[in-house]
Predict the 3D structure of the following.
Amino acid sequence: MTRASLDKQPHEVAAMFDGVAAKYDLTNDVLSLGQARLWRKAVTRAVAARPGERVLDLAAGTGTSSLPFAAAGAYVVPCDFSLGMLRVGKRRHPGLPLTAGDATRLPFADGVFDAVTISFGLRNVQDTDAALRELLRVTRPGGRVVICEFSHPTWAPLRTVYTEYLMRALPPVATAVSSNPDAYVYLAESIRAWPDQPGLAARLGEAGWAKVAWRDLSGGIVALHRGVKP
């Protein structure tokens, strides 16, 4: 699977991430020019996990994104459908309760989480709207969602430079540092095909989330969307 498609087959996407698991965190740091760590910090602040809260970290990969929530005293459940990612994560973070799960059919009861979050994984789900509804289902009333995802730069010159980087510079860089460079060609194309900030906000509202808002990071290269379960 090397081409972006609206018909994303879960087994193909899972296999793709299995193939990049070993060097995934390092590759992300390199390809984002160091911005990935800043984006993770922004997610941590937005989730604002408190001691004793239950936090679902969906598309958690190797579990790196879950560590700040655990450090804040929350009970965090890292969940991903790539077994390769989870195996790497279990070796690195044996204390985390890494869980295999499909975003469209989460293996959790209704209303069990105080906060749910997904970073850079929603656009790889086969049915985005089903995933947003599932996140709502497993969140308690008054609970919150935080979505961090690639988006559309709001400044035209930056948008042009960014698009050129995605399609021209990213593939050779990925070839140099990734264990599966073809996967990053797919990822670049999936970013271009993803809805803009208002588009994703509308889909959150349609899924049942209230008080939906977003904040641009890095000029809109990434957007942080938030909502509350009524």
Q: What stands out?
A: Strands lie at 54-58, 75-80, 99-100, 113-119, 139-150, 210-217, 222-228.
